[in-house]
Amino acid sequence: MATQGPTDTAFPDPWGLPLDNLDPSRAELFEHNVHGEYFRRLRQEAPVHYTRESPFGAYWSITKYHDIVAVEKNYQVFSSEPTIVIGDPPPDFITPMFISMDPPKHDVQRMAVIPAVGAARVKELEALIRERAGVILDGLPRNETFNWVDRVAKELTTQMLATLFDFPWEDRHLLTLWSDVATTSETVGSVTDMAKRQQVLGECLAYFARLWQERAAAEPKFDFISLLAHHPGTRDLLSTPMEFLGNMLLLIVGGNDPTRNSISGGLLALNQNPDQYELLQANPGLITNMASEIIRWQTPASHMRRTAREDIEFQGKRIHQGDRVVMWYVSGNRDEAVFENPEAFNIERKNARDHLSFGFGIHRCLGSRVAEMQLKIWLFRFECG
Question: Exposed site from 49, 97, 152, 218, fewest CB < 10 Å?
Answer without folding.
Answer: 218
